[in-house]
## 1
Amino acid sequence: MKAKDFREMDAAARQKEMTDMLREQFNLRMQKATGQLANTANLTKVRRNIARLRTVMNQKSG
């Protein structure tokens, strides 16, 4: 997602999205550890989306 999309969400939706992305990151890490992860680029994409979302959340709170 783009930062613009995160900015358009309300606070509750951003929090839910953060929870979902952190869960997805955990699942991808477990797949990588067990050798089941085929596309390792997904791990990077999720990590960057989490960073984007945290940036938007900090901007909105400040």
## 2
Amino acid sequence: MNNSRSFFLYLILLIGVVALSTSAIFVKLSSAPAPIIATYRMMFSTFILLPVLLIRKGTIKELINLSHKQLILGSISGAFLALHYGLWFESLTYTSVASSTIFVTLQPLFAFAGGYFFFGERLRGLALGGGILAIIGSFIVGFGDFNIGGKALTGDSLALIAAASITVYFFIGQYLRKNLSLIVYALIAYSSSTLFLLAYSLFCRYPLVGYPSVDWLWFLGLAFISTIMGQTIFNWLIKWVNTSTISMSILGEPIGTCILAYFIFGDIVTLKQLIGSTIILFGIFLFLIYNKPRKIPS
């Protein structure tokens, strides 16, 4: 692949990471319970994509002609996406945000292992080194608030499983997107994720309505900015950029969140966060330079 095409893919990847960085901001702004936020995030994302299904030629036919295998795998993908949100949000009730974030950002380790065993992907030494360096940077960012023992251990364990869950979601997407269009795959994953999250919210007896008017604006922001412009971009890229690269790039999300939190909430960026963020960015840079994406169509 020539450099201009690689630059294009990485530019789109950057846009996706920046959009995804707004997730924590919208969640923090909302007063609704975490499962409700996640439910409406995926529900509104599904509604936003539905008109595209009707407008884009051939997508309805593609949806009708889905094989049982594609439908089942797409639904399983949505289940893992819902599991990721459910476990990650739940982990925040047991441990600190920093500790939870550290374990969630370990997802590249699952991606490296899964890519090796299931897709035969081999990472160059410098690419692998960059990945490990970026993970170390994540630990530096959250080290001061790291919790061990008691309820914190439960929260950290949930966050770690959440990291594995989102990695499985991306791996299924990497497989299905070889033969499915972006809109059809995203609709299957998002709609099934909505159903799982809705069932969980109802099981926990969270009210579906009665939240402040501004919360619905935050739900829409999560759907359009964080999901459509973030998560959906990753679903598009996964056809040409492997899961390891996506997972590595998502390590940049906390950096974007810190910057936004500084301007929106006035949160102070510490020297430790600056050092850790610099290491993360350098690690991601090394990984992207030495882990080239697959060829994209002309």
